[in-house]
Design a protein that fits this description.
The chain is an alpha/beta fold and 374 residues long. It contains ten helices and 21 strands. The strands form five sheets. Strands 6-21-20-13-14-15-18-11-12 form a nine-stranded mixed β-sheet. A six-stranded mixed β-sheet has the order 2-1-3-4-5-19, with helices on both faces. Helix 7 packs parallel to helix 9 and helix 9 packs parallel to helix 10. It is globular. The termini are close together. The model has no long low-confidence stretch (mean pLDDT 94).
């Protein structure tokens, strides 16, 4: 695995938009303010031609132009690290225009982004054997004030701290107050809709409103099922991190860009810790996605699963919830499945290095991920 040099003091950050660009509010204001933050911290910046663009469908521009921007930024000697301008919908269409042979031959540099950016962070590791960071896009760096998770992402890309951890609170759906009959009467402790809040203040920060409660599932001893671990025991995992947004992963599965078998064989002695989260998928789609990845052999050398809170958190369909949507199908691997983690679309998120060897320690409502660059 190739690891880039960490972003150094006074280094240059390149901003590219292979998915959405910062073309509408609040993203324009957030991007502008993020640049002010980075400038105040002493960093220089270089913006790609699509950073503020909104000419494409589900991405900032035409796919070949998005790919060109990314390839040029990756090989630009003036740029020390790259942060994506945003997630989006159709970055998969940019993948054919990403030159992973070029990535292999070039001096590696950190790329950070999440969601649709899985199309680069995942493929950089599996095709080009080059680590990348599954972490926040640039808009998160524009909020006022920063949530500690934003500082954690900066500390990771600069190499100041290689241990990621979970957070005490997260921002979730409204929590209803019930009357004596059990009927909701008012929504209390709700995280106000940030889209509405940002109409007045585009720099609106996260509004955590729920206490963190992880759920850890472990083998039941029979070799057939997983059980919820309520013993408050410490769970440890070691292996190489691989994953991202499930919505994107299943699109890549089985294509010419699917090099997971090769990655698995290269690192079978380490084993793989899969980290997965979802955006647009409902619980049925999550189960179908897990089935697809399982049947493709992606989980061949799995040591454990780290699964983020899905955007459909709390949804249930026909007796299926977010837990048995995955645990039923993953039970055969007889490895721990850690769920409702701070990964992905329900903030905050802990940054993870795709491709790195990791030591994971989880207990109660705490988790830490030590990245080991070997």
């Amino acid at each position: 695995m190739r690891y880039p040099e960490f972003l150094h003091d006074n280094g240059t950050i390149g901003f590219v938009a292979p998915s959405f660009g910062c073309s509408t509010e609040p993203y324009i204001s957030l991007f502008n303010n993020a640049q002010e933050h980075f400038k105040a911290l002493g960093y220089k910046m270089k913006l790609g031609p699509n950073a503020y663009a909104g000419e494409g469908i589900g991405i900032s521009n035409k796919p070949h132009l998005c790919g060109k921007e990314l390839n040029e930024a990756y090989t630009d000697n003036e740029i020390d690290a790259i942060i994506s301008c945003g997630g989006g919908e159709l970055m998969c269409e940019v993948v054919p225009f990403m030159d992973f042979d070029l990535v292999k031959k070039s001096t590696p540099k950190w790329y950070m982004g999440y969601s649709d950016n899985t199309n680069f962070t995942f493929l950089s590791a599996t095709i080009a054997d080059t680590a990348a960071i599954y972490g926040p896009c640039v808009s998160s760096f524009g909020m006022e004030p920063w949530h500690s998770s934003v500082q954690d992402a900066l500390d990771l890309i600069t190499g100041r701290n290689l241990v990621s951890h979970g957070y005490d609170m997260w921002e979730g759906p409204a929590l209803p107050v019930l009357d004596e009959n059990g009927d909701p009467i008012v929504e209390e402790n709700a995280a106000p809709d940030r889209a509405e809040l940002r109409e007045e203040n585009p720099l609106e920060p996260y509004k955590p409103n729920r206490k963190t409660e992880y759920k850890f599932f472990v083998p039941d001893g029979s070799g057939l099922e997983l059980k919820l671990d309520d013993t408050d025991s410490t769970i440890t995992l070691e292996g190489r991190l691989l994953g991202g947004c499930m919505d994107c992963l299943v699109n890549l599965r089985g294509t010419d860009f699917d090099h997971v078998d090769d990655f698995n064989e290269r690192y079978k002695e380490d084993g793989i810790i899969w980290f997965i989260e979802s955006c647009d998928l409902n619980v049925m789609s999550i189960r179908r996605a897990i089935w697809q990845m399982k049947c493709t052999g992606w989980f061949k050398y799995v040591k454990g699963f780290m699964i983020g809170r899905p955007l459909c958190f709390g949804e249930e369909m026909m007796g299926l919830d977010q837990y048995n949507a995955v645990t039923d199908l993953l039970a055969e691997y007889q490895v721990p499945v850690l769920m409702d983690l701070d990964i992905g679309h329900l903030p905050p998120m802990m940054p993870l290095i795709t491709g790195a060897y990791a030591k994971v320690t989880a207990k109660g409502n705490t988790i830490s991920v030590e990245h080991i660059l070997k």
